[in-house]
Design goal:
Layout (H helix, E strand, L loop, with lengths): L1 E10 L10 H11 L5 E4 L15 H6 L5 E4 L5 E2 L4 E2 L2 H4 L3 H19 L5 E3 L7 H10 L5 E3 L14 E4 H4 L3 H7 L3 E7 L15 H4 L3
Parallel strand pairs: 1-2, 1-9, 2-3, 6-7, 7-8, 8-9
Antiparallel strand pairs: 4-5
Helix pairs in contact: 4-5
The site of zinc ion (ZN) has 5 residues, from strand 1.
């Protein structure tokens, strides 16, 4: 069986990242069209209190039960290194990686009332040791969204999903090993320094919906 998820990452309560902006509007258009998107949310972007999702329950509530909440790191930032993106789960101890996932789970459950269903790591990157540790210690997660960039997909058995756009050449190989294949149609927000691209959930790319 092949399951398809429509996912959006970097969601957090800041204008330009799905909060009172064109991305939120376009997400709600998808919902109105009968699609239940998965939101990869960052529960406390860069450890800033004003972006903690617990402070924005009205915004969370505005999505109703029409979305699936999932984890996209805890802060999308590593304060020990002072950098964003891939260092959050790559350049930390195994214990810290588990702690970050537990913190994200707690914050999301507290704000949305439901357990997050899966995780996509910032920048798609996680070390093998930390991945092994999470598979042992956080087996409540339904899936890990992984990418061959920075990871080896085949090690993670059935708990993987792959982005269709980047990994379509892997599907045949995966089908040989797994009964169920989960595919992501992944949309991107990050309007900051990364800019928009063809996956962005902006007005231009969603005109046809
Ligand atoms: Zn991200």
């Amino acid at each position: 069986m092949i399951n398809i998820l429509l996912t959006v990452d970097d969601i957090h309560p800041e204008e330009g990242f799905g909060f009172h902006d064109e991305y939120e509007f376009n997400l709600k258009r998808l919902i109105d069209a009968g699609i239940k998107p998965t939101l990869f949310v960052v529960p406390q972007w860069h450890y800033k209190m004003e972006f903690h999702i617990s402070k924005h329950k009205e915004w969370i509530k505005s999505f109703g039960e029409n979305v699936e909440w999932a984890i996209h790191g805890y802060a999308h930032y590593n304060p020990n290194i002072g950098r964003d993106v891939w260092q959050e789960f790559n350049e930390v101890s195994e214990q810290k990686a588990v702690e970050l996932v537990d913190m994200a789970r707690f914050a999301i459950k507290n704000a949305t009332g439901t357990d997050p269903v899966g995780i996509r790591f910032p920048g798609w990157v996680i070390s093998q040791d930390n991945m092994d540790s999470l598979l042992t210690n956080c087996n409540w997660l339904d899936y890990y969204a992984l990418h061959s960039f920075g990871t080896e997909l085949m090690n993670y058995k059935d708990k993987i999903i792959v982005p269709l756009t980047k990994e379509i050449h892997k599907l045949y190989e995966l089908k040989l090993h797994h009964d169920n294949i989960n595919i992501i149609l992944h949309a991107h927000i990050s309007p900051g320094e990364n800019g928009t691209n063809e996956n962005s959930l902006n007005d231009e790319n969603t005109e046809a919906i």
